[in-house]
Amino acid sequence: TPTPPNGWPCLLYIHGGGWVVGGLDSHDFICFELASALQVLVIAIDYRLAPEHPFPAAYDDCRAVWQAIQAGQGPHAIDLQRLIVVGDSAGGNLAAALCLGLRDDRQPLPKAQVLIYPGLGGPADLPSRRDCMDAPLLSTADTDHYRMLYVSDPPPYAMPLLATDFSGLPKAFIAVAQFDPLRDDGLLYAERLQAAGVTTQFYPGLGLVHGCLRARRQVPEVDELYDHLLDYLRSEGLTQV
Predict the structure, then answer these.
(1) So what's the architecture of 8-235 in CATH?
(2) Positions marked active-site
(3) Quick check: 161 and 95 in contact, CB under 8 A?
């Protein structure tokens, strides 16, 4: 396929896995889905993992990839006006943190941030922590364990809900899962972005559990999430047209 005149629309994908597991192979399924459905370039970040590499290693790696893209150092021409950052779970944390850091440093921002069941460092007494304590695929104890391995005394770039200023951030699409201890992190972040004047679409993920992106074409509720996600990306110009 020839390169579009202004370069490729691009998704920068940051995988989940509690900052401890996961990588390019574990999330190839969604990167391939996004690339083929939208006919765009998808760049997945193979960031360093905890506990060997705790915060800020993963965050620094995401910043380094962002700077390389801005400097045109990749093998493909990229349309920097149609560049969106996407992340699930711990990757959603890193995507939100990347946007906060770039804004604070007055660097170019992505056109939008897409956070899928992100873990953003909400307080331990959020209702979802209690309601979904023993949820499948991710329990409250799991979230505490991963967080402990990643960071002991979190600053805002480690846990974006600790930020005090949410203005001037890229518009957002935030999807959560109903049966997920992290559900209220995404809800709280959406509320804070909206209160700061950031255009935000919130998807409540009724019937979904954490990690459900893998059930594409197996569960109608998951396909509905994908439909909303793809529609949002198309509405933001993330197609080759």
Answers:
(1) 3-Layer(aba) Sandwich (3.40)
(2) 89, 180, 210
(3) no
| pLDDT (tens place) for every residue of the chain, 241 residues total | 788 999 999 999 999 999 999 999 999 999 999 999 999 999 999 999 999 999 999 999 999 999 999 999 989 999 999 999 999 999 999 999 999 999 999 999 999 999 999 999 999 999 999 999 999 999 999 999 999 999 999 999 999 999 999 999 999 999 999 999 999 999 999 999 999 999 999 999 999 999 999 999 999 999 999 999 999 999 999 987 5
Burial class from Cβ neighbours inside 10 Å (0-12, 13-18, 19+) for residue 92 reads buried
Quick check: 61 and 90 in contact, CB under 8 A?
Answer: no
